[in-house]
Amino acid sequence: MKRVLLLTALCGLAVSCTTTRPTPSHQPADETEYYVKASPLEELNRRILPDPIGGLGHSNDAQLSVTDIRLTAKYTVLYMTFDHSRGQYGSSSSTQISIDPKAQLVSLDGKETFAFVKAEGIRQTPDHIDVQAGDKAKFVLYFERLKPGIDEFALFECKDSPGLTCWNVTDMHVDNPAAQ
């Protein structure tokens, strides 16, 4: 009887001391994964990890994330993922997505703007693509190249309205040294 009580007490102690912190050795499956399972009750215990790459911004749409930012000789290139299983809309139906060709990148001080040039993997408004429940759409957006020295910027597509969520992403950063 004493062994059973001792074993029960030890089991209770072990369960009460279990941590729900993400393990520091966790490596995301891909650049868009920001959550890790913290316990068997994941939905109740989600913990957001910091942006694993840095400077990829904060989107007003939980289903949209920037997975990479690159500068070429001609363009500022944003690699994007729309994950229909995340966010406020859940995954019970399909949705339509597109990029407004009037979208632009805006410098941190708001004085400089850089126009949208082209897209790969997504259509421009008023055309659209359908994203089925639980699916992801990966696409690439090309904008005019940021001027040297502008390393913090935002994406501004439009103002949200009833029934329309625009893609606006703030706090993006890319290494872009000033010309010497």
TrEMBL record:
PROSITE patterns, per database record: PROKAR_LIPOPROTEIN
Record-given protein name: Lipoprotein
Organism for this UniProt entry: Fibrella forsythiae
